Amino acid sequence: MAIYSRASLNSPSQLRSPTPISLTAQSPTSFHRTIRLQRKDPRFSIRVSIEDDNNCVDDNKHSSLAELASRDSRTHPRPLSTSDLSKSIRDRSRLRVAYQGVSGAYSESAAQKAYPDCEAVPCEQFDVAFQAVEQWVVDRAVLPIENSLGGSIHRNYDLLLRHRLHIVGEVKFAVRHCLLANHGVQVEDLKRVLSHPQALAQCELTLTKLGVVREAVDDTAGAAQYVSLHKLKDTGAVASLGAAKIYDMNVLAKDIQDDSDNITRFLILAREPIIPGTDRPFKTSIVFSLEEGPGVLFKALAVFAMRNINLTKIESRPRRWQPLRQAVDSNNGSLKYFDYLFYVDFEASMADPNSQNALKHLKEFATFLRVLGSYPMDTD
Ligand SMILES: O=C(O)C(=O)C[C@]1(C(=O)O)C=C[C@@H](O)C=C1
């Protein structure tokens, strides 16, 4: 049984697309298959063929997959993929906010918490959400950056640096996971459970007790959608109560996360920065790199401590393009070090001269420094 990326089966506009779409299935077993959605008649029919690695086409699968694809496409918007980004969006009446996943994902709820009247736009991957903002397809992106149980979402730290968007806000969202299965399926029937890797990590204790095989997919709601569409009897999903309703699934257990206080912090990204204020609590996010040497990170952090600026987060990531730095050591000759980027959040606005002085000071010995955004704190 292969786990397909969401887009393989839920695509209204893929089905209308003039070009055939080819998606590689991610298979947990030795099967590795490619799904091709091909348009036979532009208006009325699609042809779905499944090929295995030996290019054997299994025609018997056509009708059922086509049926599934069209049934789902009528009800839920398809996540944007990179190829959609060139198409213009006409309805500009509501703020459009990109999130990663499909309808029912926690990220969609976070987008709606940040902008209650927005049009939440699903995207296949984090990268697509970044590009959708950059290319004016949407106005904002709301993306997870850290979770109180699972830790940092490193991919988004890396993408913040690779793209040129600005952090204009943050939103904290209480994530309450449910164990979902198709109607009639009991907990004892479950052999495996699908979900987003963060969600699986957040439910470690429950899933270990159940003794099920865990399989990672792109998002929690996508897991529910997959199990529901395929009418699986031995597979469950960890997802939200909202996803249970959308994909008509039974809730076998609620609040299965390891700790009831399971909070994910999301960043709100935009093309333009906001003008920082001092009228309410602000946070500033920066990224910098430093020379190699004893006490350099200590010195960097001291620029905040000596000004009584509170740090709320520090994350280090290896530099992707020059991950190793060559340095000369008087005792050992030439040495190679890992080169890091440090992401720091501090509780102050860039409108505050204290923050400006701290960054001026940091620049004296940082080899690179970028302000990612200065934005109101979510104090909920
Ligand atoms: O899969 C989802 O529903 C998401 O919104 C993604 C995501 C994440 O990336 O951390 C968001 C919140 C939860 O922490 C689990 C998963």
From TrEMBL:
<keyword id="KW-0057">Aromatic amino acid biosynthesis</keyword>
<comment type="pathway">
    <text>Amino-acid biosynthesis; L-phenylalanine biosynthesis; L-phenylalanine from L-arogenate: step 1/1.</text>
</comment>
<feature type="region of interest" description="Disordered">
    <location>
        <begin position="1"/>
        <end position="28"/>
    </location>
</feature>
<feature type="domain" description="Prephenate dehydratase">
    <location>
        <begin position="96"/>
        <end position="271"/>
    </location>
</feature>
<dbReference type="InterPro" id="IPR045865">
    <property type="entry name" value="ACT-like_dom_sf"/>
</dbReference>
<protein>
    <recommendedName>
        <fullName>Arogenate dehydratase</fullName>
        <ecNumber>4.2.1.91</ecNumber>
    </recommendedName>
</protein>
<feature type="compositionally biased region" description="Polar residues">
    <location>
        <begin position="7"/>
        <end position="28"/>
    </location>
</feature>
<dbReference type="InterPro" id="IPR002912">
    <property type="entry name" value="ACT_dom"/>
</dbReference>
<dbReference type="GO" id="GO:0004664">
    <property type="term" value="F:prephenate dehydratase activity"/>
</dbReference>
<keyword id="KW-0584">Phenylalanine biosynthesis</keyword>
<keyword id="KW-0934">Plastid</keyword>
<dbReference type="GO" id="GO:0009570">
    <property type="term" value="C:chloroplast stroma"/>
</dbReference>
<feature type="domain" description="ACT">
    <location>
        <begin position="285"/>
        <end position="376"/>
    </location>
</feature>
<keyword id="KW-0809">Transit peptide</keyword>
<keyword id="KW-0150">Chloroplast</keyword>
<keyword id="KW-0456">Lyase</keyword>
<dbReference type="GO" id="GO:0009094">
    <property type="term" value="P:L-phenylalanine biosynthetic process"/>
</dbReference>
<comment type="function">
    <text>Converts the prephenate produced from the shikimate-chorismate pathway into phenylalanine.</text>
</comment>
<dbReference type="InterPro" id="IPR018528">
    <property type="entry name" value="Preph_deHydtase_CS"/>
</dbReference>
<dbReference type="InterPro" id="IPR001086">
    <property type="entry name" value="Preph_deHydtase"/>
</dbReference>
<keyword id="KW-0028">Amino-acid biosynthesis</keyword>
<dbReference type="Pfam" id="PF00800">
    <property type="entry name" value="PDT"/>
</dbReference>
<dbReference type="GO" id="GO:0047769">
    <property type="term" value="F:arogenate dehydratase activity"/>
</dbReference>
